[in-house]
Design brief:
Layout (H helix, E strand, L loop, with lengths): L19 H13 L6 H14 L3 E5 L2 H11 L7 E5 L4 H8 L4 E5 L10 H6 L5 E4 L11 H8 L6 E3 L7 E2 L2 E2 L6 E5 L12 E5 L5 H7 L8 H4 L23 H31 L16 E2 L6 E3 L3 H10 L24 H7 L2 E3 L8 H16 L1
Parallel strand pairs: 2-3, 2-4, 5-8
Antiparallel strand pairs: 1-9, 6-7, 6-10, 8-9, 11-12
Helix pairs in contact: 1-9, 2-9, 3-4, 9-12
């Protein structure tokens, strides 16, 4: 194995892709004097709904908040169950547990690491209130197959935190289930610094979601500026909830990012193709499935599977290359107590390593990563 070159420029695992356009957009908001939820948030909601093929979107301050509001829309509470894949970020299951319901963990498909549809269906009980599939790494979950398998009685909440710009059967992710929850966190494909959105395929639930994102108040501050009455402080509070609003600073960044999203995702796709070609002759590296005519990933993650994963992570770090693990199976965390063994999730995640993936990654950077991984596995 070649001697590490500590003088090489470090390669980040993730990095926001921002330019002067975002700086200018934020400056305009700061100069306007309206920093909270207002006209920019409203504009972003319209634009993102159109992009995601949704009837409406409701912008919030994180995908976790979007998931939490989705639980409230279904009145999920004590004694209820929601089926969640084991391979996801803890926010997915936390949103269920926060409402005193029980996340029921299911296994994942060994190729895509998305929810195993048969295993999920087998875990449905009279207490099941919803199914919460995750589009892992941006790879679209086959929501139509899931719907066919479970029937029409259970709502499907899509965790689309990784899937901004993904598409399935020619349709953008955002309208395949009952609602879809997106993330605009700092290193997501579309960043607002932080933020999220709930996409709705119809009018159902939209008005209540808007109330739930701001303490149960039936009119937010921006809407009250449009009222002819001078008594702008008059409103009703019909729900008890928390403050989940997006602000106009974040929305201004998100509007610019949305205009760039397809180009940024195209660059991610090119990097993924370069990685896969670079590992084509390496039998010790299992690469993620590539796009198909029906399934187009946003490539938020490029996660390989390899033996001696931890040692590879250290070797890459010594060469100035960051990597990460997405994720330790959630059912193994102590906060969820004793859970049944989920063999695919446990076996595959022990070999899982995310390689650098962001639009600012150059071809030379990608080649450095490929060379380092190939060198390690050959030693």
């Amino acid at each position: 194995m070649p001697t590490p070159n500590h003088k090489q420029t470090p390669i980040a695992l993730f990095r926001p892709f921002l330019g002067e356009e975002e700086v200018q957009a934020v400056s305009e908001v700061l100069r306007s004097g309206w920093l909270g939820q207002g006209p920019r948030t409203e504009e972003f909601e319209r634009r993102f709904a159109q992009y995601a093929g949704a009837a409406h979107t409701v912008a919030v301050n994180s995908c976790t908040s979007a998931l939490s509001i989705s639980m409230q829309l279904l009145d999920v509470g004590p004694g209820d169950e929601v089926i969640v894949p084991a391979v996801t970020f803890v926010a997915t299951s936390h949103a269920v547990a926060y409402h005193r319901a029980r996340p029921v963990f299911c296994d994942v498909d060994p190729e895509t690491l998305n929810m195993d549809i048969e295993d999920a269906a087998a875990r449905i009980s009279p207490r099941t209130r919803a199914i919460l599939p995750v589009h892992y790494g941006g790879r679209p979950m086959e929501v139509d197959r899931l719907r066919e398998r479970i029937g029409t009685g259970l709502p499907i909440i899509e965790d689309a935190a990784h899937a901004c710009g993904s598409s399935y059967k020619g349709r953008a992710i955002g309208g395949h289930g009952n609602v879809a929850c997106f993330s605009f966190q700092a290193v997501k494909n579309l960043t607002a610094g932080d933020g999220g959105a709930i996409a709705f395929p119809s009018d159902r639930g939209v008005d209540r979601a808007r109330v739930l994102r701001w303490l149960g108040i039936n009119r937010d501050t921006w809407d009250r500026t449009k009222l002819p009455s001078q008594l702008w402080w008059q409103y009703e509070v019909d729900d008890i909830t928390l403050k989940y609003q997006m602000n106009d600073i974040a929305a201004a960044i998100a509007i610019v990012q949305l205009e760039k999203l397809d180009a940024m995702n195209a660059r991610r796709r090119a990097i993924a193709e370069r990685y896969t070609a670079g590992f084509a002759d390496n039998t010790r590296v299992q690469t993620p499935p590539m796009d198909t005519p029906n399934s187009r990933s946003s490539w938020h993650l490029y996660a390989i599977r390899v033996d001696n994963r931890d040692a590879l992570h250290i070797a890459l770090k010594e060469r100035g290359i960051a990597s990460g693990v997405h994720y330790k199976p959630v059912h193994l965390y102590g906060c969820y107590g004793h859970n049944p063994t989920l063999p695919v999730a446990e076996e595959q995640c022990a070999r899982l390593l995310s390689l650098p993936m962001h639009p600012g990654l150059s071809d030379d950077d990608a080649d450095r990563v490929i060379d380092a991984v190939n060198a390690f596995t050959a030693s």
